[in-house]
Amino acid sequence: MTNVQVSAALVAASVAVPTTGTAAAQELERGTTGDDVRAVQRALGITADGEFGPITRRAVKDFQARSGLVVDGIVGPATKRALGLAGAPTPSGSRGVTPSNAATTMSIQRALGISADGVYGPITRQAVRDFQRSRGLVVDGVAGPATLGALGVSGGGSAPSSSGGSAVGAARTKLGAPYQLGGEGPAWDCSGLTQWAMAQAGVTIPRTSFDQFNVGTPVTRESIQAGDLVFFDANGPGASHVGIATGNATVISATTHGVREHAIGGDYWGTHYVGARRY
């Protein structure tokens, strides 16, 4: 057999052998079938028939466009990470939450005020991106150390209690509502809002900010996490104003300008900080 014939035979053999390498395992595209495709379809919220056809390709392209990815309709490593699918390689140096860390994922979801199903999928990723954007963090949808810290969630699985996360979610639904002294809805005062939010999580606390400060467990400034109540002397001496922490650095409170999310520290609120309580 001549050298030309050997080369031709090798080429033919290489074409005939199915591709089973790492690159093929990492990418899914039109015509692919199997369980990996079903996982993508479930993450996208479409029928999981295991066939990567035109409907799946369109759903992938729509997701990529929403997530700021390259819009090619191919599920490669970046798209897998964005979908929260296990097995997607994590970028070097990244220490974000992975789907296997369900406890932390649920804590993140509670802190964000979304459904806590423990799945770090596209809805959670988008909520994380929105949160990062609002805090001036790197917007990548990955719950790394900076994002976890801003959310008041520990990456080790320790996190706000389910009641604390539920209370934060309840308080978020009132953002933008007007202020009213003594208000308990639809307009609110500070302690009326916190009492109501905690009640939605099954926790009963007193009505006034002063009485709320006198119950619960004291929390140091560094240990504040989502669901804790944070007190200020903004309306007079002592714990005259209260908000519910959405993380270690921010709270939701009914201010005289309405219900809004604001910093715990800073030139104004930082100088009026009194303390924090956990219930």
UniProtKB/TrEMBL annotation:
Database matches in PROSITE patterns: NLPC_P60 (PS51935)
InterPro entries: NLP_P60_dom, Papain-like_cys_pep_sf, Peptidase_C40, Peptidoglycan-bd-like, PGBD-like_sf, PGBDSf
GO MF annotation terms: cysteine-type peptidase activity
Domain NlpC/P60: 161-279
Keyword entries, A-Z: Hydrolase, Protease, Thiol protease
A GO BP annotation: proteolysis
Matches recorded under SUPFAM superfamilies: Cysteine proteinases, PGBD-like
Pfam families given in the database record: NLPC_P60, PG_binding_1
PANTHER family registered for this protein in UniProt: MUREIN DD-ENDOPEPTIDASE MEPH-RELATED
Family according to the record: Belongs to the peptidase C40 family.
Protein name stated in the entry: Putative peptidoglycan binding protein
Protein's organism: Solirubrobacter pauli
